[in-house]
What does this fold into?
Amino acid sequence: MRQYGAVVLAAGKGTRMKSNYCKVLHPVAGKPMLGYVLDAARGLDLDKICVVVGHQAEEVMRRFEASDVKFILQEPQLGTGHAVKQCSGLFEKFDGHILILCGDTPLITTEILSDLVRFHEDNSSRVTVLTTTLQVPFGYGRIIRDNNDCVSRIVEDRDASDPEKSINEINTGIYIIESNLLFDLLDKLRADNAQNEYYLTDVVSGANKLNVPVCGCHTADSSVVVGVNSRGDLADVNAMMWWRLRRQLMSDGVTLLDPNSFYPDFGITVGPDTVIYPNVMITGASSIGEDCVIDPSCLINDSKIGNRVKILLGSKLDKVEVEDDASIGPMAHLRPNAKIGRNARIGNFVEVKNTIVGAGTKAAHLTYLGDSQIGRDVNIGCGTITCNYDGEKKHRTIIEDRCFVGSDVQFVAPVRIGSGSVIGAGSTITKDVPPDSLAVARSKQKVFPLRLGQGSDSKNEDR
It folds into this structure.
């Protein structure tokens, strides 16, 4: 088999996106679209991969820095043909064929590229163009074939005549071209078109002038080669990627009660027999265990969830870990670096941040636990607050195993509560409490009659 390298075009700003960010950095299902193209190319086990960068080049290189990727700067940006030509030095001694890809086609797969390479090989081709058919081909270059069914030229939409615009077979922007031939053809390009740019598509007519046949490899699945040029395209591609990910999860044994309203990021994992209700988002590098239940309107980001966990209505989990058999919510908020132990319960309107909650511990409702370490089998009463911030620094609260904390308690950190202790309701705890102690810190109750002189006793009563 011939040697193969790849050039990925990622230099453009994408003016139709109307964005301050480089187009290829826009996420599709949580992953920058260029990442999908690189992954598809890597699946071919190529000899070289080159990415042409331009707009926000430093940011693109930072995001995709890898040992198998070389970056070439295109400056100024004078079209796709000019972009590929910048790679000539990298391929100077490369005796093989170059796969040219677009960084804004995130639905492309290794399977489609493998079919293209196989077609190229089977036809002993020196130039192959991947084509597809669209019912509405507006904006795409049209494929003009000759009597031998070879591609004689590609006409850009803005330069096409009315008869040419009626053609439905379009150029996907993906090619395989013999390396030496490619750079010879690029040297001959001229910018005599509406945009005064060097079109890569003109290498097709250039090859025909040299009597080199150009093969057109047609794919029936036009969805995999869709390019993103606008916010509308981005929304369409997101929807297609979500469906691809949903189907994979369902085939792995996950129940999606309403697949259309579940939004998974690329790379998440969900175990079998987990049930996901409508309007759920699972993003980042999240992993969900087996036999979990995720109620409606939950958001889980960059989190690790164990087996048989229940995440109840309207809860948000961000960069946290939840161990097996725990229950979260409803309306709970777990913030970064929260770790919830096995069989623990975090109830409604409880917020946990940078806190370890031990196995079997319960914080049922209306509580804030921040910068804390809570032991095993602790009961946290309603309205409990760890007062972790003194205006300048954060401080830690430690509550050891088997403590009982009454309602409406404030722990003014730093403070440690010994194991087996009981904290009376309404207490403000400012000092350490030794193990197996009762701590009560509140003022005495005073009762006054509503009207002096009425009743048998008008004196204050202290308890």
